[in-house]
Amino acid sequence: MAPPRSVPELIEDTIAEVLLRIPPDEPAHLVRASLVCKLWRRILLDPAFLRRYREFHRIPPLLGFLRNSITASLFQSFRYVPTTSASTIPQPAFDCVRWRALSCRHGRVLHDMGFYGVDLVVWDPITGDLQRLPKSSITISFYSSAAVLCAAGSCNHLGCHGGPFLVVFVSSHDGRPAGVRCEVDRNRNGALIGDNIYFSLELGEKFLKFDLGNNSLSMMDPPDLYNCGVLLMQTEEGSLGLAGIRGSRLCLWSREVDPKGDAGWVPRRFIKIQKLFPNNTPRYRRSVIGFADGVGVIFV
Hints:
Elements: H1 7-20, H2 27-34, H3 38-45, H4 47-57, E1 64-70, E2 76-82, E3 100-105, E4 108-112, E5 120-123, E6 130-132, E7 144-150, E8 165-171, E9 191-193, E10 196-200, E11 207-211, E12 216-220, E13 231-234, E14 240-246, E15 249-257, E16 263-272, E17 290-292, E18 297-299
Antiparallel strand pairs: 1-2, 3-4, 4-5, 5-6, 7-8, 9-10, 10-11, 11-12, 13-14, 14-15, 15-16, 17-18
C-alpha cells in the first residue's frame, strides 16, 4: 500500500490541476502565472506538466501567421504577425529578404530563399534552427508548390521539434503536372490528409493528389459548382475539405465516399460573412487565402 501523500504534495497537485485549465489562446496568462511564486513557475516549466497541458487542450491555439509580401525594392519577403498580446515566437534572427514562406506544419516552416523553389530551407521558429535542403533534381518552374511535415511515425504532433521531417515539392514543367495541361497554383498550400497531400492547380480546375505510401500522383476534379480561389483543407472529421467564397457566403465542402464506394464532393456548411467586411469592399476582392492546419481557422 502506498504511503499517504504529504500536505505540500497535495497542494502542489491541486495547483497543477488549476494551471492545467488555463486557456492556451493567450500565452500571457501562463507568463503571468509563472511570476506568482517559485512553486507555480516550477510547475509550469516541468516537461511532464507541459505534455499534460498539450494533451488536455488538444487543439493548439492560433498564435499568429506568416505573411509573404513584396518590399519597396520589389524583393519578396516574409514576416511573422502575432495574433496574441504576448508572442511566443520571436521574429527571425536572420536576413529573410528574398525569402518566401511556402508551408507551415508540425512546428516547422518551409521557405524558398530565392526564386521558384531552387533554394529551400526548413526553419523551426521555436528553436531557431535552420536546415538547408539539397538542390532539387526536378525541373523548377514558376508554377510550383511544396509541403513540409513531420516524418516520425509515432508522433502526435503536439510538440515535435528536432525530429525527422519530409518535404514534398511539386512543379509543373511546361504547364503539365502529371501529364495534364494546367499549372500548379503557387499561392495555395498543400493539404495533408492521412498519407496523402493534395495540391491545387491554377484556378482550381483540377486537384493533384500525391500518395506518400506508394509515391504516386493522380488527378481529382473539383465540385460541379466552384469559383476561382478555392482552398483545400482538412475537415473537422479529418477528411479532405474545400472552402471558397460564393457571393456573401463562405462555402465548405467535403470529399466523402457513398455506400457504393464512389467518392464525391458533398456540401457541408454555408456561412454568411457579409457583416465581416466593410460595406465598400467589392465582392471580387473576397477570397479564401489560407487555412491554419490543425487549428481549424480559415483566412479570408
